[in-house]
Amino acid sequence: MKRFVIGESRSQSTLFPELLDDYVAEDNPVRVIDVFVDELDMRELGFSGVDPQATGRPAYHPAMLLKLYVYGYLNRIQSSRRLERESQRNVELMWLTGRLMPDFKTIADFRKK
């Protein structure tokens, strides 16, 4: 096998940058989505869940789910299941959501509301 390009062993440890920010370029559209949604007044726009409940399991903030939804819209990802999968493997979405990975039902319920 000397005449083929050979990849590294999967058990080889590597030194990736520790910051997820290093993987997202300065001109990447996810940075615009992040700033845009952060500037919105979610309460004034009528989003429910802006004020967290005192009891029960903590919910995802509506701003994070809106960022995920807008990302999907801009990248032609319509399926909630596919958005769930992308949030688990796509570095841009990991950066945008802060490595949160909501399940497809949470994403679908957010769209419906």
Shape: elongated
Provide the helix percentage. 40-55%
User: Termini separation (Å)?
Assistant: 57 Å
Q: What is the structural class? A: mainly alpha
| Average pLDDT figure | 88
From the alpha carbons, calculate the radius of gyration and give it in angstroms. Answer: 18 Å
User: If helices are DSSP runs of H or I spanning 4 or more residues, what is the number of helices?
Assistant: 5
The unreliable regions are: none
Query: How many β-strands, per DSSP?
Result: 0
Question: How would you sum up the major sheet?
Answer: none
Query: Proportion of β residues?
Result: under 5%
**What's the SSE pattern?**
HHHHH
Notes on the protein architecture:
The protein has 113 residues and is mainly alpha-helical. It has a domain at 27-43 and 60-112. Helices cover 44% and strands 0% of the residues. The chain contains five helices and no strands. Helix 1 (29-39) runs antiparallel to helix 2 and helix 1 runs parallel beside helix 4. It is elongated, with a radius of gyration of 18 Å. It starts with 28 loop residues before the first helix and ends with a helix.
Comma- or semicolon-separated keywords:
single chain; 113 residues; mainly alpha; 5 helices; elongated
Provide a brief overview of the structure:
44% of the residues lie in helices and 0% in strands.
Blueprint (SSEs and pairs):
Blueprint lengths: L28 H11 L22 H13 L5 H10 L1 H7 L6 H9 L1
